[in-house]
Amino acid sequence: MSAGPGGVAPLVAHAGRAAAEVPCPKPKVAPPANRPPRPVPPPDDPVGSAIGGDALATHGLVIPPGVKSPPAVTATTWMVADLDTGEVLGGCGPHVYQTPASVQKTLLAATVIDKLDPDQRITVTRGDLDIEPGSSAVGLVVGGKYPISTLWLGLMLNSGNDAANALARLAGGGGTDGVAKTVGEMNALAKRIGAWQTHAVTPSGLDGKGQFTSAYDLALIARVCFANADFRRYVLTRSAQMPAQPQLKKGGFQFQNENKLIFNYEGALGGKTGFTTVARHSYVGAAERNGRRLVVTLLGAEARPMRGYQQGAALLDWGFALPKDESVGKLVSPQEVAPEPSPTQKPAGAPPAATQPTRGEPPKVLTVAAAASVALLLGGAPLLLLLTQRRRRRPTARAR
């Protein structure tokens, strides 16, 4: 086997690539004639594609052996995972680069929701309304004064790009460079949590050159979001009131949650919808049944024959029908992707890096010598241990 980028090919066993990739189930519908070409994604990264388990490094279908095939959906890529245990139940090209649209607002929330006081009031500037003409806005007005909590509702319910700009500006210090600073923090958070396919250019998810994410990354981001009580409350809110601005002679109005999952799905916990003509439909949704919380993420979908949230609901149904011990991979923790401390930083008496595998099982981490060799190859990449992760049951790709 020839070495790939960084010379790491012999170290990464891509289960999904060992044999011909199995196509993901798709409905027999023609794509829209006016669909624009997909942006050219970065080349596949053998290290990033192995985050969470080598079986996830596939552009095709990966599900546990012997389980029922997932529903046919138009989403180009998708994934279902357990929010609490982190087990990945299945997916279609989980690490494939896609454009995010407004599900990127979940990354904004994950980055700054704890930094901003929900009771603080913000004055909207003209720059906050600098959004693509015709794109979604919650209706903020220049000079209007709004509680931060109202802006979060406008962001999550109505997908307000104006609210995204205002929140990002404030979180970045409130100046003209505030949005850029927050976008930088969004990208830094993505790297810290293992979302290596994610690169934000805008805080709202409006299309930008070089802006990508993946179904796996969105699940990592969703896990951060759903750990926050304010986020959970916002995304389950069915409607909210935009306050009047009497000093500007502007009346108040009501706006609705665009995520229909919370109205139509048993145990829905909320989520986020997204759409641009380039990204197509994207969706993040979560639900709880019998004490089990699952999240679904999907990208590059068309609205027919099912809308994005309906495709999410169908995939959630499939996930809830699987036994709890089924898994094809894992949502990594920030600790698992953090750089290893240097030997001089390790406390005295620290346990050795290597552990002995159970008989009949492959090693779960590298030996010290192997880790050193890989470190030379990867230039100190922080995913050395992740490359050798194996699942309890070897997943197999299944045909429809």
TrEMBL record:
TM region positions: 365-388
Example of a GO MF term: carboxypeptidase activity
InterPro entries: Beta-lactam/transpept-like, Peptidase_S11, Peptidase_S11_N
Record field: compositional bias (Low complexity): 343-358
Hydrolase is among the record's keywords: yes
Pfam families registered for this protein in UniProt: Peptidase_S11 (PF00768)
UniProt-annotated stretches for the region Disordered: 19-53, 331-364
Keywords: Carboxypeptidase, Cell shape, Cell wall biogenesis/degradation, Hydrolase, Membrane, Peptidoglycan synthesis, Protease, Signal, Transmembrane, Transmembrane helix
Amino acid composition bias (Pro residues), ranges on this chain: 24-45
Domain Peptidase S11 D-alanyl-D-alanine carboxypeptidase A N-terminal: 69-302
Homology family: Belongs to the peptidase S11 family.
Protein name: D-alanyl-D-alanine carboxypeptidase
